[in-house]
């Protein structure tokens, strides 16, 4: 991945399309992505009105963030109208909820292909049902084909907890195998991966802890529900000062004339190989992309 292709997705904030006060804030927020939500945060009686607002929201869209729209499932009552409305706003991505099989992505892709011929709109998939999780590897494989438009998985931990009866309590200990399954599937398909939401938005410490946990697990960012969560996510998913020092040291040591043809060197008593050099360059590129924001 080149530096210009890296788009930080540390903080992915849902804003309900039905909430005018919240919508009026989005131009001033420092999150990386805003997801205008037509799904669970919008009551059935408000679905049509919320959908109609999309055009106005996107006519004044902030340019410093990626903008996505989460539609209702295409299998339900509102999905097809949501998708048509979302496409006409040209968001960066359309987030499909409750994706269960590769077919769900291919079906949305076909509809997009007719309207978005220059392939500007990506598809993101929520993994939040038992079936979707079981099929996550085959769904993610679509990411290997750019024609599928699939570029990102988003964990839907609330729905998974609801569908399975498994608790998110105790630092998500019972969820960890499933979250790691998503990480593995996403990486095999070359996808980005966003962790689920933390519902208790006044618990700043607990939220920061969960962000650090997700960053250590390999997630690229966190789904957010409140502006108060943006800062902690931006910190947790950016390369740390220590990681940058180490990355620079690895780049420097391989740049020395005596090491230019070496596959492995020692750095401060530790083995460093060229795969670590690749990781270090990625870390530095990510920091550059974050600093550009
Ligand atoms: C959770 C909330 C309903 C809380 O709202 P509120 O009581 O208004 O909070 P505050 O008074 O503390 O808000 C302070 C100001 O910030 C603005 N605000 C709040 N939330 C947002 C937001 N998401 N985006 C932009 N701006 C926001 C308020 O308007 C206040 O400003 P002001 O009015 O001028 O004082 C609310 O935060 C909320 O609705 N959050 C988003 C909920 C949502 O989108 N849910 C769906 C996505 S999560 C999900 O679906 C889970 C997933 O699918 C899964 O399965 O896991
Ligand atoms: Mg959900």
TrEMBL record:
The keyword Magnesium applies. GO terms for molecular function: lyase activity. InterPro entries: Aldolase/citrate-lyase_domain, Citrate_lyase_beta/mcl1/mcl2, Pyrv/PenolPyrv_kinase-like_dom, Pyrv_kinase-like_dom_sf. Keywords: Lyase, Magnesium, Metal-binding. Residues 10-227 form the HpcH/HpaI aldolase/citrate lyase domain. Signal peptide: none annotated. It comes from the Bacteria. Its cofactor is Mg(2+). The keyword Lipid biosynthesis does not apply. Pfam families: HpcH_HpaI. Belongs to the HpcH/HpaI aldolase family. This is HpcH/HpaI aldolase/citrate lyase family protein. It comes from Aquamicrobium segne.
């Amino acid at each position: 991945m080149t530096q210009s292709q890296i788009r930080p997705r540390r903080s992915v904030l849902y804003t309900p399309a039905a909430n005018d006060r919240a919508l009026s804030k989005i131009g001033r927020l420092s999150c990386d992505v805003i997801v205008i939500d037509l799904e669970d945060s919008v009551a059935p009686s408000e679905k049509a009105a919320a959908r109609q607002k999309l055009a106005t929201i996107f006519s004044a869209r902030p340019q410093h963030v990626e903008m996505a729209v989460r539609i209702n499932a295409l299998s339900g009552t509102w999905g097809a109208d949501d998708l048509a409305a979302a496409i006409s706003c040209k968001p960066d991505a359309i987030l499909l909820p409750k994706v269960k099989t590769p077919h769900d992505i291919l079906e949305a892709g076909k509809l997009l292909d007719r309207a978005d011929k220059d392939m500007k709109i990506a598809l993101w998939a929520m993994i939040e049902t038992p079936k979707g999780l079981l099929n996550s590897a085959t769904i993610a494989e679509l990411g290997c084909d750019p024609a599928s438009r699939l570029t990102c998985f988003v964990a839907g931990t609330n729905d998974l907890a609801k569908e399975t009866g498994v608790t998110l309590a105790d630092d998500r200990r019972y969820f960890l195998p499933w979250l790691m399954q998503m990480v593995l599937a996403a990486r095999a398909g070359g996808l980005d991966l966003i962790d689920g939401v933390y519902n208790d938005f006044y618990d700043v410490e607990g939220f920061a802890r969960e962000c650090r946990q997700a960053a250590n697990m390999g997630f690229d960012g966190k789904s957010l529900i409140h502006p108060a969560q943006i800062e902690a996510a931006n910190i947790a998913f950016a390369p740390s000062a220590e990681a940058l020092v180490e990355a620079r040291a690895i780049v420097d040591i391989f740049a020395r004339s005596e090491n230019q043809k070496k596959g492995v060197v020692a750095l401060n008593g530790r083995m460093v190989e060229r795969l670590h050099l690749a990781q270090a360059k990625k870390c530095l590129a990510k920091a550059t992309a974050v600093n550009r924001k």
